[in-house]
Write a structure and sequence with these properties.
three-stranded antiparallel sheet, DNA-binding, mainly alpha, WH-like_DNA-bd_sf (chains A, B), disordered C terminus, homodimer, 3 strands, 9 helices, 60% helix, Tscrpt_reg_PadR_N (chains A, B)
DNA sequence: GTTAGCATGTAAGGAGTTACATGATTTT
DNA sequence: AAAATCATGTAACTCCTTACATGCTAAC
């Protein structure tokens, strides 16, 4: 009946982890912080929020005082529903973050996963980055093989398309290499806030 | 009931324009020539073929002789259904090629459209390339504006993601500029076969 | 004689979108 | 008083995937 999983669930949990929000605000954030890449519609957001509440990962706060800036100007406006992440919701987000899913999940939604790296342990970051890199390298190998086989039969445009595609992938691999190296280098000198131990499970 | 439109229909029409094929072969081509980018499944391909036949854009040929390499080794094998593009199908493909659709169509499936540039008039090519470029430039402007507004509130990873994203888009814009210039330059000296007049509608 | 590849299909489901419906509030 | 923005929601639809069903042939 409700939405099961999907990138939207992940993004909502991730954004609500930073601070509670109502739906409208959430959608705006989805289309700026993350949403340079994709725009979600209300038609998918609100149903998604409902099922997340049903599973106990979010709780609704009709007019509590989660934050002054959110509650204060509520004078006559339609009652906004502010959503807050529960402890189970945090666990679920953690699970999704570190999940080595069925390939397409990680490949298509890498951008969104990366956007939440600030909330991730270095172990997970390394795993995601290296996973992405190895899948791109696989793809590169397939492209090269296919190109070697069919080079003669292809017209100029198709060839140019494949050339540009391969260059883009190669470029991303180099980018990933830099990121991975910088993660490795930062193993000693911390960059920002490094979570000291992932075994800390006490809820706030 | 059947598939309405979508990129699959477009790709099938485009591939069958080159030469008749049966479903299995079509799927392989979809995953090499075009399909470096995406892989379609039989579960979408065969139903799509059926509705295209229903609309008169394809005709089925059980065991005709469209090509030696296709008919010859059919000794005992399951009877393959070879699909051939009709005159109406060609018109439909032409229509889809030159269509200035509802934005997302052109944006998400640019790669597949580009793959069929060899079968397109230069007018259409220019229109598609310039359309793509202007949409990317719009997006770039939005990204820059959003970045200027929220730079302080973003962590290092989100910032790095946006930086890399913008660089990729800028790179594609430069690529498009080169292509557009080369199209303009080739206005006199022809490159390969230039279709002289698109009003030629006689079927083969 | 079992696996791998060829070849075609159906049913159910997933993850979203578009279009619509509603209504209050601030801006022009 | 009209238009834009805030705010929440539903129904129908789209386009594609997964899992399944079927059966034949070639290679190991």
């Amino acid at each position: 009946m409700g939405r099961r999983s999907g990138i939207l669930e992940f993004a909502v949990l991730g954004l609500l982890r930073e601070s509670p929000m109502h739906g409208y605000e959430l959608r705006k954030r989805l289309n700026t912080s993350l949403g340079v890449f994709r725009a979600f519609s209300y038609g998918s957001l609100y149903p998604c929020l409902k099922t997340l509440v049903q599973r106990g990962w979010l709780i609704e706060e009709s007019g509590g005082e989660p934050d002054d800036s959110l509650t204060a100007p509520l004078t006559g406006r339609r009652a906004r529903i502010v959503y807050r992440l529960t402890a189970e919701g945090k666990e679920r987000f953690e699970e999704l973050l570190s999940q080595t899913g069925p390939d397409t999940w990680e490949d298509e939604h890498f951008g969104v996963r990366f956007a939440f790296f600030g909330q991730t342990s270095r172990d997970v970051r390394m795993r995601v980055l290296e996973g992405r890199r190895s899948r791109l390298e696989e793809r590169l190998a397939r492209m090269r093989a296919s190109l070697a086989r069919t080079r003669e039969r292809l017209d100029d445009y198709t060839l140019e398309l494949q050339r540009h595609g391969m260059e883009s992938v190669e470029r991303e691999v180099r980018w990933l290499n830099e990121l991975i190296e910088s993660e490795r280098a930062g193993r000693d000198q911390q960059r920002g806030e490094t979570p000291p131990d992932p075994s800390d499970d006490t809820a706030t």
